[in-house]
Amino acid sequence: MENFSELTTEKINPATAHIDECSTLEMVKLINDEDKKVAAAVERVLPEVARAVDAIAESFSRGGKLFYIGAGTSGRLGVLDASECPPTFGVEPDMVQGLIAGGAGALIKAVEGAEDDLSLAAKDLSAKNFCAADILVGITASGRTPYVLGGVGFAKKIGAVTVGVSCVENSKLAQAVDIAITPVTGAEALTGSTRMKAGTATKMVLNMLTTAAMIKIGKVRGNLMVCVQATNVKLRDRINRIKKMITNP
Fold it and tell me: Of 34, 43, 58, 84, which one is the catalytic site residue?
């Protein structure tokens, strides 16, 4: 039986032990104070983030794809980042894909037991034709979610590069992957609510992974999104401004 109380993300935060007794302003200040620690935690793992970016860009250059897998908040963050790549960088929808334990329905409602199924991710990845040329990023704040570990095991078995994003020191995920990205964000403002600091750190890391990889494969000029898709009025205006800046430097 696992001792979940030993996980950093499950520990009680003494700074917020009496948050329920605070005024509203004091309450949000406490949460904000905890959030301030996130960027520093991410900064400490930038070398690992850079290694992962290089691996992703190399995979893209060989026609490979990037897959995120996760459960709950972690899975939703992966799906979110993947879904924003086509409009932002003009890539095909299957170039970056997000898989969540329990399928699309789990994006809005938890699917009981899905994250605890060690074999489910292999089935999900196989259904998407995941292969050795692709790269897998497993996301789990605790670093021990069976769905994610099962997916990593499957990816390694077929020879794909694996990356793990977790927020607990020396996690099972970190030990299993080729590149471990572990921003240790500490105890949450609400005990165990990893949608907070851990989720914020994860979002920051995923932003870097896809943005930097897309820059490396030529989807950005200067700091301009030259491949952005004109799907609304704002983006059509942005494209016109980008064209003017490039043609009239």
Answer: 84
Catalytic residue among 2, 115, 169, 188: 115
If we measure between CA atoms, which residue out of 103, 72, 79 comes closest to residue 9?
A: 72
Contact 38, 200 (CB under 8 A): yes
Calpha distance 219→56 (Å, rounded): 14
In whole angstroms, how far apart are CA 149 and each of 115, 118, 221? 10, 7, 37
Question: 43 an active-site residue?
Answer: no
The C-alpha torsion from 225 through 228 and 231 to 234, rounded to 10°, is: 10
For 221, which DSSP code?
B
Specify whether the CB–CB gap between 9 and 201 falls below 8 A.
no
Closest CA to 146 of 181, 110, 180, 173: 173
CATH class of 4-215: alpha beta
Beta bridge partner(s), residue 167: none
Phi, then psi, of 106 in degrees rounded to 5 = -75, -10
Question: Which of left, alpha, beta for 182 (phi over 0: left; psi -120 to 50: alpha)?
Answer: beta
Residue 234's pLDDT band (cuts 50, 70, 90)? confident
Please write the tens of the pLDDT for every residue from 134-169. Answer: 999 999 999 999 999 999 999 999 999 999 999 999
Strand 66-70 vs strand 135-139: parallel, antiparallel, or unpaired? parallel
Annotated catalytic, 10? no
Find, among 114, 115, 122, 103, the residue nearest to 142 by Cα.
115
Domain with CATH 3.40.50.10490 in the chain: 4-215
